[in-house]
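Sharing in case it's useful to others searching the archive later.

Someone asked me privately for the predicted structure of TLDc domain-containing protein, so I'm posting the question and my answer publicly. Question first, with the sequence:
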Amino acid sequence: MGNAQSPPADPRFAMASRAFSKQELDDLKALFDSLAAQSQSNAKFISSSVFQGYFGIKGVLGVRMFDLFTQSRKDGRLTYEDFVIAKEIYEKGTRDEIEEFVYQLCDINGDGIISRSDLEAVMHFIYDTIFSPDGAQPCLSSGRDTMEVFLSAATLSKEVEGTESRMSFVDFRNWCKILPSVGKFLGSLLISPDSGRPGFQVPYLHHPEKLSHDLLSLRKEYAWHIGGALAQQELEEWKLLYHSAIHGLSFNTFMAHITSGDGPTILVIKDTEGYIYGGYASQPWERQSDFYGDMKSFLFQLYPQASIFRPTGANNNLQWCALNFSSDSIPNGVGFGGKANHFGLFLSANFDQGHTFECTTFSSPCLSRTNKIRPEAIECWGIQVKGLENEQNDAIKETVLERFKEDRNMLKMVGLANSSE
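And my answer, the predicted structure tokens:
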């Protein structure tokens, strides 16, 4: 008669455990025990419903996340070993490991293929989570149809005859790069729901009541998209400082309204072609005879496709603000990137025209249908930054990663984790 033996320990569990401190492991065990008790499993495993309920990941994405945690056993039982292994990959893994995990998460059917229908399911989940009727600002959210702008940014380059086009791993990386809000959201699903997860916050858009919502180009979904490239403390409230429908197409009036604060601003343009795009100005708009600004500025597209274009480091031609100069080499107006008279984005001082060209400063394309801009509406939003004074004082001493520690996982996932180290 032989003695019954326990199954050998999973070597991945021992390796994963070493990535956590003793306190972190104790916390994971306490969380597991609590969820297992709710699962009525004699503290042996966590059920799918309890797992999804705690992390707030429901529907098809919740089912897929649970499947990844249980290593696709299909037995409905998430063990402590499973829990630690998956958390180690998702929270402590290398950039490639985190990206691969989230890439697999977007494979909703688990068939090794990420199709457009998979991406639609992901974006609908994001919409329902962030812009639910109970939480969204009335009249400032356009509904699920707006999420099409994010789907339009996706490249599905892998084609197999007789099947739907699919997204490659490289396609996925690029998609998260130009849509950092998506990357942040998917990269923080397993952070405690009570701790304020990156990618979930939407700025409150404060504007005059007399301004019809229909005249606003910046919708909640667009603000969430832009906010993906910003720090958490910049996502509290954005105040409309200037709108051409209220203040008229006047550069002097524009400057008078936007220079009332020292915080960053967001310039949004809707042109007569129906395209919506703009730029984030990290520095105040001030009369200069040359480019200025810092590497936090970026350009973005909102419609018909959403993308964000960060500085490449190719040059320092970031912000432009010229007023009352008589030289042709110093065009009067506001702009971003490129070079004088050939900007990535530019509005002339008359505010009746401008241009947008492919730009090495941000590696951005022409932002509209054509290079010439005919504005239909111009908006400028001021970002109300909490503790701006302290942040400015500390900025000299801190790197980007130190200031935005809460976004560490997301930065790894989109390939920025080492860019400032």
